[in-house]
Amino acid sequence: ASPKALMSMNFAPLKNDTFLRALLRQETDYTPLWLMRQAGRYLPEYRATRKGAGSFLSLAKNPGFATEVTLQPIDRYGLDAAILFSDILTVPDAMGLGLYFEEGEGPKFERPLKDEKDVMALKVPEAGSLQYVFDAVTQIRTALDGRVPLIGFSGSPWTLACYMVEGQGSRDFHTVKSMMYKRPDLMHHILRTNADAVATYLNAQIDAGAQAVMIFDSWGGALADGAYQEFSLSYMRDIVSQLQKEKDGKRIPAIVFTKGGGLWLEQLADIGADALGLDWTMNLGQARAKVGDKVALQGNLDPAVLFAEPEQIRKQVIAALDSYGKPAAGHGHVFNLGHGISQFTPLESVSVLVETVHEYSRKQRQS
Ligand code: CP3
C-alpha cells in the first residue's frame, strides 16, 4: 500500500458518528450539532493562540496551530463535528492573487482579477501550493483520535469569484456582477477554473482525512434568479459530481450551503449533495417538506439569538427543533446556526445551545 493509504488506515475508529449518520439520513439518538466558525474569536483560548501566532494567516498556514484551534471548541463544548481551521480564500491565494488581512478588516487580495489578461492567466493551483491545508487535515484527524468527524470545506466557485474580482468583500458586488453581465465568457472562465480547483482541493482534503465536505456559497444569494442557476448552482453541481463519494469504504457526505438560497431549495436538492445548509430566513419544517427524503438539512438558528438570555435561547432552539419535527427514516437534521457565530457571542450562550439541542432532541425522539 502507498504511504498515504497506510496513514489513513491508522486513524482511530470513530466514537461519535451521529453527525455523519444525520447527513446520510440514518437514525440517530439525538440531533447532532456544530457551529459555523466555531473556532474563532469568541473563544478566549483562540484569541490567546492567535496572539502567539501573530495573525489569522499564520494560524491557518501552520498545521500545528490549525490543529490546536480546531480542537478548542470540541474540548470546551460537546459538539458533534470538528471543522478544519482554514479559510475559503486559500484557493485564490494559491492561484497567486496574494491574500492578506489588515488588522480589523476583512480579507483582501493584492492582485485581483481586473481585466481579460488577468482572467485568462488564471490557473488551477499547482499541486503542493496547498499542502499545508492537507497536512493540517491529517494532523487534526489524528489529534481528534476518533472523538468526532472532521469536516473539510471550500468556497463555491461564485463566492470565490466575488472576492477574486472585487479584491475584497462587497456590499453590492458591483464589479463582479458587472463583469458577469458584460463579459459572461470571462466570468465562465473564472468559474470553470475555480470549479476544477475546488474539486481537486476537496478530493485532496478527503485523501488527507476529511470525513465530510462542505461548500460555502456565501454570496450565491446576491444573484438574480436565472443568474444563480447559470453562475453558481451549475458549478456546484459540477464539483459534487467530481467528488469521491467514498473513502476507505466510508461514504463521504457533501453539504452545500447557499446563504440566501431559500428560493432555490428544490433545485439545490437536485445537484447530488447529501445535505443542504439553511440560513435563518428559512422555516425548517417547510424546507423539510420541500426536499422530502432527497437530502438532509443543516441549520438554522439566527446567530443573534445567542445574545439573548438563556431562557430565550432555549425557547428559540426548541422552536427550531419542533419546526423540523421528529426525525423519521430517510430524513436527517444537523443543528447549526444560519451563518457564522459572532465574535461577540457570550461563552455561556453556546453551552445553553449545546445542552438544549442534545437534551430536547433526545426527548423528542421518545415522544
Ligand atoms: O467554521 C470554522 O470554524 C472553520 C474556519 C473558517 C474560517 N473561515 C476561519 C476564519 C471557515 C469555514 C471560513 C469560511 C469563510 N471565509 C467564508 C464562508 C463562510 C461564511 O462566513 O460565509 C467566507 C466568506 C470567508 C472569507 C473570510 N475570512 C472573511 C469574510 C473573513 C473576515 C470575517 C471576520 O469574522 O473577521 C475571514 C477571516 C476569518 N476566517 C476568521 C476566521 C476565524 C477571522 C480571523 C481572525 O481575525 O482571527
UniProtKB/TrEMBL annotation:
It catalyses: uroporphyrinogen III + 4 H(+) = coproporphyrinogen III + 4 CO2. It is found in: Cytoplasm. Keywords: Cytoplasm, Decarboxylase, Lyase, Porphyrin biosynthesis. PROSITE patterns: UROD_1 (PS00906), UROD_2 (PS00907). GO terms for biological process: protoporphyrinogen IX biosynthetic process from glutamate. Substrate binds at R37, Q38, A39, G40, R41, D87, Y163, S218, H339. InterPro entries: UROD/MetE-like_sf, Uroporphyrinogen_deCO2ase_HemE, Uroporphyrinogen_deCOase. The keyword Manganese does not apply. Its main location: cytoplasm. The keyword Glycoprotein does not apply. Residues 32-41, 151-167 form the Uroporphyrinogen decarboxylase (URO-D) domain. It is an enzyme of class 4 (lyase). GO terms for cellular component: cytosol. It holds the Pfam family URO-D. One of its GO terms (molecular function) is uroporphyrinogen decarboxylase activity. Its EC number is 4.1.1.37. The record marks D87 as: Transition state stabilizer. Pathway: Porphyrin-containing compound metabolism; protoporphyrin-IX biosynthesis; coproporphyrinogen-III from 5-aminolevulinate: step 4/4. NCBIfam families: hemE. Belongs to the uroporphyrinogen decarboxylase family. Catalyzes the decarboxylation of four acetate groups of uroporphyrinogen-III to yield coproporphyrinogen-III. Homodimer. This is Uroporphyrinogen decarboxylase. It comes from Undibacterium pigrum.
